[in-house]
Amino acid sequence: MDALDKTILEHLEFDGRSSMQDLSELTGLSRSAVFTRVKRMEDNGVISGYTVKVDRKKLGMEIRAYCNITLKLHERELLEEFEGNIGRHREVRSCYHLAGSFDYLVEVEVPNMEAYHRFITQRLAAMPNIATVQSMFVMKDILTP
User: Fold this and answer.
1) How many angstroms separate the Cα of 6 from the Cα of each of 11, 13, 107, 131?
2) What's the rounded Cα separation, in Å, for the pair 55 and 145?
3) What value, to the nearest 5°, has the Cα angle with vertex 134 and ends 131 and 140?
4) Which residue among 2, 78, 80, 129 is least crowded, i.e. fewest CB within 10 A of its CB?
5) What is the mean pLDDT of residues 4-22?
6) Which pLDDT score, from 0 to 100, does residue 62 have?
7) How large is the average pLDDT for residues 99-108?
8) Is the pTM of this model over 0.85?
9) What integer best gives the mean pLDDT of the chain?
10) What pLDDT does 57 receive?
11) What is the largest CA-CA distance in the chain?
């Protein structure tokens, strides 16, 4: 990857709908040269997909919480079981296995506090091997990628 590839990537991260013409004007390369670079980065897995940013509040998702989850036991099979199950819940937006004072950080979005309570008590607490859950609620987005 050279500086032009990095410029293309940075622009696509900011606006994934950029046309080859937009990228051509940005880099000074021809559209076909830009297309070849983008295609190579897709084929190599550097670009793994394109996404749409959604205003979740406009969809009625008023509550975003981050749950610090600690497991009781840390055997490989139990970690794999948790990781296999957590993504099956429609409320879960992301999940990270971390090193530190807790095991997982799970991002949850729900319409209201009642829905969050249901998620915690009926879904998360029903999963085996959960020792503790600490919730933090987003009050305001400052920087959103």
Assistant:
1) 9, 10, 29, 43
2) 12
3) 160
4) 2
5) 94
6) 95
7) 96
8) no
9) 94
10) 87
11) 57
Phi and psi angles of residue 43, each rounded to the nearest 5 degrees, phi first:
-65, -35
Q: What is the DSSP string of the chain?
A: --HHHHHHHHHHHH-TT--HHHHHHHHS--HHHHHHHHHHHHHTTSS--------GGGGT--EEEEEEEEES---HHHHHHHHHHHTTSTTEEEEEE-SSSSSEEEEEEESSHHHHHHIIIIIITTSTTEEEEEEEE----S---
* The CATH number fitting domain 3-43, selected from 3.40.50.150, 3.40.228.10, 1.10.10.10, 3.20.20.70: 1.10.10.10
What residue segments make up the domains of the chain, in order of their start?
A: 3-43, 56-137
d(CA 102, CA 64) in angstroms, rounded, equals 19
pLDDT at 116 over 90: yes
Distance, in Å, from the CA atom of 48 to the CA atom of 44, rounded to the nearest integer, reads: 9
Read off the tokens for 66: 């981050």
pLDDT exceeds 90 at position 53: no
